[in-house]
Automatic annotation (TrEMBL):
Sequence ranges assigned to domain 4Fe-4S ferredoxin-type in this UniProt record: 1-29, 31-64
Organism per entry: Aliikangiella marina
UniProt entry tagged with the keyword Nucleotide-binding: no
Keywords of this entry: 4Fe-4S, Electron transport, Iron, Iron-sulfur, Metal-binding, Repeat, Transport
Protein name: YfhL family 4Fe-4S dicluster ferredoxin
Domain of life: Bacteria
Gene Ontology molecular function: any one: metal ion binding
Listed InterPro entries: 4Fe4S_Fe-S-bd, 4Fe4S_Fe_S_CS, PSI_iron-sulfur_center, YfhL-like
PROSITE patterns: 4FE4S_FER_1, 4FE4S_FER_2
Record carries keyword NADP: no
GO-annotated cellular components: cytoplasm
Length: 86
């Protein structure tokens, strides 16, 4: 699944620069995650970096965008042009 930022977001700006896929951007009221770019950091890191730095823990999995690890790997490869290395 991709991740989503909930309305508990305090617009602290710490998540946006941590996203290796540039999936996070400032929305109308809070930061937003583009589900087409979010790979939960698969291919880059062991854990989603935005979740690691968020001070209010407002970045859960997006139940509206279910994806398997295999789908996230394919998305990573398409976004980066790199082959996934375990």
């Amino acid at each position: 699944m991709s991740l989503i930022i909930t309305d508990e977001c305090i617009n602290c700006d710490v998540c946006e620069p941590e996203c290796p896929n540039e999936a996070i951007s400032q929305g109308v009221e809070i930061y937003e995650i583009d589900p087409d770019k979010c790979t939960e950091c698969v291919g880059h890191y062991e854990e989603p970096q935005c979740q690691q730095v968020c001070p209010v823990d407002c970045i859960p999995l997006d139940a509206n965008n279910p994806e398997t690890r295999e789908q996230l790997i394919v998305k990573y490869e398409n976004l980066t042009g790199n082959s996934f290395v375990e």
